[in-house]
Structure formats: structure tokens, C-alpha cells
Amino acid sequence: MIEIKNVSKSFGTKQVLNNLNLTIKDNSIFGLIGINGAGKSTLLRLLSSVYDIDNGEILFDDIKYKDLEVKKEIFLLPDNPHSEICRTVDELLEFYKVFYDVNKDKFYQFLNEFKFDKKVLNAKTNINKFSKGMQRQVYLCLALSIAPKYLFLDEAFDGLDPLARLTFKKNILNLMEENNMTIIISSHSLRELEDICDCFGLLDGGIIESSGDIESSLNQYHKYQVAFSDDFEESDFNKLDIVSKEKVGKVYQIVCVGEETEIENHLKSFNPIILDKLTIDFEELFILKVKKEGYINYEK
């Protein structure tokens, strides 16, 4: 279990994290979300002891994050991995073998699943000359072949095409189940996170503004497309806890919080011409939470 207790971090006069608290359970995939500049990368670097915390405490199974034994069990894949030391893929593997138990056979097996161009490998091309997507695939395969107890991925899907994303999601789920790993993924690809994450944390203003089980959080919100006759007044919506409302012609699209049966009974009491329940996904949930905090005015 990872416990983050009252952790703060500043860079000069800029406070990035402010008394942040978060607990992440073992054997899970946790989605770390937030707008640009919220501090997601900073938090991952603190967990990996790349940065030092200013205040607070970080524990891995009750052991402090700076402990050498803990460090050996952590692998961080940053947003833009770059190596001046390692020029080729083989050199990269040899370098990381010094610090981790890299399974070379698994590494090339994963690369093969990503349909990686073997000609590029055989040509001993400099990794830093690879495209962003190819670099991402190499480092993801490295992370998967290490299979650490704690794996932190910053913008894991960035640069990956749809097929590569599917390959990554399949392998990360299998790996977690086989090795009892705890994985934190920071990403703006929220629909991808919804496919693989158990829980999420929304980072805003230096703290975790909200967190929880993704499925349970989605079940709290109910989205409808509804239309009424001319005698309907918008004030009739007032009894509902509406967090988003849009209107095109006579058709409203609303998102409500509350008991599904009560919401639908209230809407049906006005004899709607149209009443359709729509699906809400994790990306919409994030946008709704961000709008609620005042970043965007959701009324149209």
C-alpha cells in the first residue's frame, strides 16, 4: 500500500503540492488525472524519490520512500524519456540491468507484440532518433519486462497509435494480475484509463480534490436526453441536482446527481416527448468535476 501523508512540494515561490493526502491500495491500477500543470508529474517524481518532499511523509508498506529496498521496487517512466548514456536498444537493456532484473526475452516478446520494426533494431539505430511513438514503445516494453512492484507511468498513452494502445492495455492488465503490481498512470487519455484503472484521483490546487472507484463514481451521475411540450418551464428542473445542462431546440441534455428512479419519475411527471438515458464515461466525469470547480462555465 502507498500512503501519502500531508505532502507538500514547492519550486521557488510556486507551490505545486499542498498537504496532499492519498492512499493507493496494493495490486491495483490507479489513474492520476488533472488539468495541465496540476502537479501530476511532480507527484510521480516524488513517489520515485527523483524529487525530495518539502514536508509530509510517503510510505510504501510502512517503509519510507527513500529506503534503498523500496527504490529497487519502483520504476518511473517519465513523459519524455531521453538517454544520453544509451544509444541503442541493447545498450538501454544493459544499462537498466545494473539496477533492475530485466527479462530480456520478455522485452523482445513485448516489442514483437507492438509490431515494432525489426529493421530498426537490427540497424542499431540511436534511440533518440526514434519517433516519439517508437521511443514510447521501447520504454514501455522495458517497464513491462522489469515488472516492478510499483510502476509509475507519466502520460503512458502519449504517442501510441490505437493498436499499440490496445496492446499496452492488454499486457499491463496481465502483468498486474501475474505479479501483484501497483501501478499509477497519469494520462489525458481518460477513455483509455477507464478501460484499465480501478480507482482515480483528481489532482487540483495542490491536493487530491476527489478520488474513488471509477465505476462507483460514474454510477452517481445520470445523463438524459429529454424534450417536452411548449408548456414546460425550465424552473421545473429545479428539484433536480443538475450539474450540466444543454439545450438544442426543444431537446435538453442534462446530467444529474441523485437516485436514478427519483430523477426519472420527476422527468416523467411532465409527460416528456422524448426521454432517453445516455451513457456517461470517465472523460465526461472529469470534465464535469473540472467545470464544477469553476474552470469552465457549463451553462449554455
Notes on the structure:
The protein is α/β, with parallel strands linked by helices and 300 residues long. The chain has 2 domains: 2-87 and 146-212, 3-Layer(aba) Sandwich (Rossmann fold); 220-292, Alpha-Beta Plaits, CATH 3.30.70. It is built from 11 helices and 14 strands. Helix 7 links the parallel strand 7 (150-154) and strand 8. Helix 4 crosses helix 6 (132-146). The longest helix has 18 residues, at 162-179. Mean pLDDT is 90; it is low at 296-300.
The class by helix and strand makeup works out as alpha/beta
- What is the alpha-carbon Rg in Å? 23 Å
Shape category: globular
Q: Strand order of the main beta sheet, please?
A: 6-7-8-3-9-10
What are the SSEs and their pairings?
Layout lengths: L1 E10 L2 E11 L4 E5 L6 H8 L7 E6 L2 E2 L3 H4 L2 E4 L11 H9 L6 H10 L4 H5 L9 H15 L3 E5 L7 H18 L2 E5 L3 H7 L2 E6 L2 E7 H6 L1 E7 L13 E8 L2 E7 L2 H9 L5 E5 L3 H11 L8
Parallel strand pairs: 3-8, 3-9, 6-7, 7-8
Antiparallel strand pairs: 1-2, 1-4, 4-5, 9-10, 11-13, 11-14, 12-13
